[in-house]
Amino acid sequence: MTSSTAPRPDAAPRRRLFHRKSPTAPLPRYTVSAERHDDALNVSWFTIARRLPRLSGIAVRLAWQAAPRVVLLTCLLQLITAAVTAIGLYATTSALTPLLASGATPERIGEALPALILVTVAACARSLVSALTVATTARIGPRVDGIAEARYLEATTRVPLAAYDDPAWSDQSEAASRAAKDAHQMIEALTSVTGAVLSIAAAAGILAHLHPVLLPLLLMAVLPRGFAAVRAARAAYLADRHTLADRRLRHSVIFETSSRDHALEVRAYTLRPWLLGRFRTVAARLEDAAAEVGRTTARHQLVGDAVAGCATVGVYAALLWLAATGRIAPAAAGTAFIAVQLSSRLLAGLVQGVNTTYKTGLYMADWDAFLTDTTTRTHLPEHPRPVPADPQVIEARNVTFHYPGSELPALQNVTVRVRRGEVLAIVGANGSGKSTLAKLLAGLYTPTTGTVTWDTTDISRTDPEQLWRRLAMLPQHFARWPVTARENIVLGQETGKETDILTAARAAGADTVLDSLPDGLNTNLAPSWWGGRDLSGGQWQRIATARAFYRDAPILICDEPTSALDPLAEEAVYRRIQALAKGRSVILITHRLGSTRTADRIIVLDGGTITEEGTHEALLARDGTYATMWRAQADTYTGDKV
Ligand SMILES: Nc1ncnc2c1ncn2[C@@H]1O[C@H](COP(=O)(O)OP(=O)(O)OP(=O)(O)O)[C@@H](O)[C@H]1O
């Protein structure tokens, strides 16, 4: 399996999408990382027949999990449909035999009447059972989607963070999320396939019973269209896979163009033409792909219909000949005629069903493979080591770390230790590896080589969820959760005492923010929803800081905690961090060197390696990078050279 989404130079779309006021924009054409089913068009019928049960099995298992009784009911309804079809056809022969015989018309009709009533009852029963099947299937669909989506979400929230940096995983994730949303289609399709197959089998059984030659004749009429359907499905699926990257791109272009977060820059930078140009480029590419699928499907359908049409004419001619030469009874020929017509109608459902089953089934296989791959990536240790409840020392030893797909290490041979009760400040230029080191110490990434230990426990051998329960982290890019202020602070923990929430808020300077909100802690901070309120950047940072302070964890990591705060709030937050360090290990990443003065130790990172380590005074005395940065910052305050 290849694993990259390397951009290729964009080729101009072959045809125009729609009337455009603004031009299309150059947009990289990404390749899809894992073309797992590229062989789908080339495989033999035998392979498809072999694959279909497995593909169907995934959906059937989901359906069974969702509603076993409803599945059983659906199967029962399918069997009833087939039985009613057989009864209807059998009754047709019984009705035709007296009708086509010689004798007085009233007598012949009288003789055929019970069979005619049976034919009518069978037709009504078929319609009723078919309606019941639709209602029953509709009950399973949403539950199946729900289970498939929940399992997708469980996998994505469990997978190590590094997976999100891997384009191959992101591609798979897109395919799996699409499959999970459409799982119900597979169930509907399978139901119609089973129903049609059983009914056609019933028709075939009756025909075989009437005369052995009728069965091959029926198959001749129905098979060509079925073959065409499967070919069209494979072509459509492959085209879908090849446009996966473009569909991801289109989602992100739509999001970037219309989201609230980007709305200001869209206007201030007059981005409309550029963004719409990007959208039109990717939409045109998708339009071209869809048109290609349409052409392929039409070609297969046309060939299938032509062959099926010829075969049907041949079947009718053969029936006439068999009846005319007395080889089969006229009533049997009449029933065969009706059976071929009925089967052709059923075939329409079967064709559609096989089409969807195969296509959706391949996506369900992607979903299944994604869950397996994600579980493999999650690789929890079989017997996880317990995480120390109150670690005394957190240590990275000879740690080197590469982001997925990145040749240069973000960290190289880093050894660092932070003890309980200590504040370790990490400083350095942009991109020097500060956040990466913090994430490794927190177990959010696993080192490529080297170890991170909490006390003597190698954290790669622990259960990460247990580890993260001992962690309070204020990341550089914190999330603005669209929930209440209270939930934003308590986030993921049981709602504790109101006084604890307010204490954390006060320590983070968020108390004044809460005072300004109409419903205080209960104010909804989802500005895109009715009644929701937004906050300023600094106010959000105070809430996010309160979130980290509220969490009573032995390890506190603050990554640029005051980047948006006013000077007074900044001062208060650093004081609080200092106070919190008493019972904790604190890792502080900051460019505000004023705040590092009181840190117990400072490390300076440069290009992923530690170049200096010591106290503020020791590093100033050393007159290295730290001293240079300190002086540069001091100059901006004093206006003098220090
Ligand atoms: N998800 C990622 N995938 C690939 N490379 C990454 C990723 N995140 C960071 N990097 C790279 O790793 C290096 C270290 O990044 P890191 O975020 O740790 O720097 P930093 O010192 O925290 O920077 P800043 O001061 O700008 O926040 C940088 O070269 C960056 O480009």
How would you describe the overall organization of this protein?
The chain has 642 residues and is an alpha/beta fold. Helix content is 61%, strand content 10%. The chain folds into two domains: 53-378, ABC transporter transmembrane region fold, CATH 1.20.1560.10; 393-629, P-loop containing nucleotide triphosphate hydrolases (Rossmann fold). The protein is built from 19 helices and twelve strands. Helix 17 (567-580) links the parallel strand 9 and strand 10 (585-589). The longest helix has 54 residues, at 105-158. Mean pLDDT is 83; it is low at 1-22. Bound molecules: adenosine-5'-triphosphate. Adenosine-5'-triphosphate (ATP) is lined by residues 165, 403, 406, 410, 428, 430-436, 476.
Q: What small-molecule ligands were found?
A: adenosine-5'-triphosphate
- Please identify which CATH superfamily of the largest domain we are dealing with: ABC transporter type 1, transmembrane domain
CATH architecture identity of the largest domain: Up-down Bundle
Number of strands: 12
Give the distance, in angstroms, between the N- and C-terminal Cα atoms: 58 Å
Content of β-strand: 5-15%
Under CATH at level 1, the class of the largest domain stands as: Mainly Alpha
CATH topology label of the largest domain: ABC transporter transmembrane region fold
Task: Supply the number of helical segments.
Answer: 19
From the spread of the alpha carbons, the general shape counts as: elongated
Radius of gyration, taken over Cα atoms and rounded to an integer in Å: 34 Å
Query: Given the helix and strand composition, which structural class is it?
Result: alpha/beta
Low-confidence segments: 1-22
* Overall pLDDT metric: 83
Helix coverage percent of residues? 55-70%
Widest sheet: strand ordering? 8-9-10-5-11-12
What profile does the largest beta sheet have?
Answer: 6 strands, mixed
* Overall structural domain count: 2
Membrane topology: Multi-pass membrane protein
Domain ABC transporter: 394-632
Domain ABC transmembrane type-1: 72-359
Subcellular location: Cell membrane
